[in-house]
Amino acid sequence: MQSFLRDATEFLPILLQGVVLTILVTIGSLLLSTVLGLIWALMRVSGVRALAGLSAGLINVIRGIPIIVLLFYLYFVMPDLGIALSALQAAILGLGIAYSAYQAENFRAGIEAIDKGQIEAAQAIGMGWWLTMRRVVLPQAVRIVLPPYGNIMIMLLKDSSQASTITVAELALQGKLIASSTFKNTSVFTLVALMYLTMSIPLILLVRHFEKKANQR
Amino acid sequence: MIELNDVHKSFGHVEVLKGISASVEKGEVVCIVGPSGSGKSTILRCINGLESYDAGEILVEGARVERNAPSIVAVRTQVSMVFQRFNLFPHRTALENVVEGPIYVKKEPRAEALARGKALLTQVGLAEKADVHPPQLSGGQQQRVAIARALAMQPKAILFDEPTSALDPELVGEVLSVMRKLADDGMTMVVVTHEMGFAKDVADRVLFIDGGVIVEQGPAKAVLNDPQHARTQDFLRRVLHPI
Asked: Which residues on chain B are in Cβ contact (under 8 Å) with A142?
């Protein structure tokens, strides 16, 4: 235990640099996946067959490709096509695209849960598609969507470790580097695990809060 | 002000409207009665473009109703609709439900819309419920809010789609009395209903619909007291004496 604490004080500053990148990747890809997911979901429920079909196709392609392959593609293949991305950019883009599929399905479920009668009532007072979405559907869908959204945040935080495969020196990669140079596997990976857990706990509490609020309806 | 010429409508292979021709004059109250599944509600839904129709034409104030044309917004602001299941927005208060259309569709100044919204809630007897959300209201109260919401658009006509069918029997009266007052004030109304007493007292004309066609129509008392057609007689007998 004493040696663990000594190791901890020694490794923590380096690991915290990794944490910064982990948070950066998580927040960046969360924002991107939310925006993309909302676009896919709105395309899907637009009532325009071409848009709905395109969205369904995109979601299936994205869902069918492992995140790690998507990351390799963006980081190693794109330069061949003349688009060079930094490791961090590729990580945010890759995770953002990968998670947009799950976001889209979650948003769509929330949108479709709204009673059709309300949509008709909105139309009957002259609201167009977008106004109906903005004033009637989305404000209610948010409450349904939030608990699963919180779970997606937790999954994304953990999956940000996959950015290590394309050289983003986030928490998992920093841990691996320290471990392989010091051979103190137990101390290092225990620390890494504890730090992921520490970051997850606020999110877990947030999900619980969302769930309580959603049940108050 | 509302005119239907030979309107046809099918859902898949089932033709629910088989050539409906009718007109509603300004200030008139027309009740549509008939067995369920006869196409009554579909007529209303076609008039304000919630459904498209396949053939014929529907005119509101001379303008053709086209569900997917931009002009449908103009039709809908002139012809409001009240639904069987109220369809209030549960995340907004009674007052917010009422002013939603005026503020966001008609772009009226907020203060003006709110003042008129409160007056409308008073008119339907719900002034003290302005800040309550719909799930906290009884069915009758919700339907009266829905009527206030329809009135807030300052429509030239209101379509009522079985407005009391989802209500507990003791709550039907409060909704019908609001509707009766509207009729007395000269509002043009088309009402799909099973309330024969209301139709007899308030309606100027009654259309009896069965199997997607108008079987019989005429002055309310004439059709309901002395129906000429066998199908109308049979329907009324079953509605008025169910046992």
From this structure: none
User: What is the distance in angstroms between the Cα of A213 and the nearest Cα belonging to chain B?
Assistant: 13
Single-letter residue type at A96: G
Q: Could you tell me which residues are beta bridge partners of residue B4?
A: B22, B58
CA distance B48 to B65: 7
Q: Please write the tens of the pLDDT for every residue from A196-205.
A: 999 999 999 9
CA separation for the pair B157, B159 (Å, rounded) = 7
Q: Do A125 and B87 touch (CB under 8 A)?
A: no
Whether A107 and A145 have beta carbons less than 8 Å apart is answered as yes
> Which residues on B lie below 8 Å from A128 (Cβ)?
73
ipTM, 2 dp: 0.90
Is B78 within 8 Å of chain A by CB? no
For the question of whether the overall pTM of this predicted structure is more than 0.95, the answer is: no
Q: Say yes or no for a CB contact (<8 Å) between B50 and A123.
A: yes
Report the largest interatomic distance among the alpha carbons of chain B, rounded to a whole angstrom: 55
Taking the CA atoms of chain A, what radius of gyration do you get in angstroms? 21
